[in-house]
Amino acid sequence: MSGPGPLLGPDDPAPVDVRNGEAVSPFLMICDHAGNAVPAALGSLGLAQAELDRHIGIDIGILGVSVRLSDRLGVPLVFQRYSRLVVECNRRHDAPDLIAPVSDGTPVPGNAGIDAAERERRLAEIVAPYHREIVARLDARAAAGLPTVLVSMHSFTPSLRAQPFQRPWHVGLCYGADDRFSRPVLAALEAEPGLVIGRNEPYGVDMATSYSIPVHGEERGLPYVEFEIRQDLIGEAAGQALWAERLERVLRRAHAAFAGG
Predict the structure, then answer these.
(1) Where are the strands (E) in 59-107, listed by range?
(2) Are strands 27-31 and 77-80 parallel, antiparallel or unpaired?
(3) Rounded to an integer, what distance in angstroms lies between the CA atom of residue 139 and that of residue 29?
(4) In what order do the strands lie in the sheet with 171-174?
(5) Least CB-packed of 8, 94, 121, 214 within 10 Å?
């Protein structure tokens, strides 16, 4: 499933897309796992479509939430179209699960025994364009003197197959040492009725292996928030709309508190 020459062909989707790119906002939103496309050159990675449609292949529902939230807030959204099983855009290049041979107990035949050239091909054609777009936008905002809060959008499965456990959180925030913006977001979420909120649950930010928040947030010194929304709550359009409306309120309240408004 690997070979010389370009990975992406003329009929493959572009690896990165932007919505509301000209919007002027205190926020820049990113979505690492918005899609589950696989380059034609890789077939289906040896997987049934049902596997690519699972949480191992895509952050279910999060693009629908992100698009709606981008429109409601007037926020630029940068999102990535390829499956995390092709290459994981939120990992350092030396992370062991950058190209996972097994994910949540499911073997990925197209990732078994790939060589360094294939690894580099996936990095160069999928990961690099996505992060270049984010860097270019952050650099342009910095040059213009426009303060930026980075908003990273993710979703999580209610239970892993390999480690069955019903995760109780409706939404979690993931943060590292810099929790400047996570704190007012937590306060705003707590004002929303009936939510079970995770603090670095179901995941935290791993500075050694994760990429987007460590590099674009922590290393730049930018305030940020990383949302993780449980997938059964946003699998359909109605839930996506509800969560976009909710996060619009939360981000407006949090930013007002953060900016001293």
Answers:
(1) 77-80, 102-103, 106-107
(2) parallel
(3) 15
(4) 16-19, 77-80, 27-31, 149-156, 224-230, 171-174, 197-199
(5) 94
Distance CA 49, CA 80 (A): 19
- Residue ranges of domains in the chain, CATH in brackets: 16-258 (3.40.630.40)
In Å, what is the CA distance from 86 to each residue of 3, 13, 77, 200? 14, 14, 22, 26
Task: Say how many C-beta atoms besides its own lie within 10 A of residue 242's C-beta.
Answer: 15
Task: Report how far residue 235's alpha carbon sits from residue 85's, in angstroms, rounded to the nearest whole number.
Answer: 20
- Between CA 200 and CA 226 the distance in angstroms is 10
**Long-range contacts from 245-251, C-beta under 8 angstroms, 24+ separation:** 245/68, 245/72, 246/192, 247/65, 247/69, 248/69, 248/72, 248/73, 249/188, 249/192, 250/185, 250/188, 250/189, 250/192, 251/27, 251/69, 251/73, 251/151, 251/185, 251/188, 251/225
Give the DSSP letter of residue 177.
S
Which residues lie below 8 Å from residue 13, measured CB to CB, with a gap of 6+? 35, 37, 81, 82
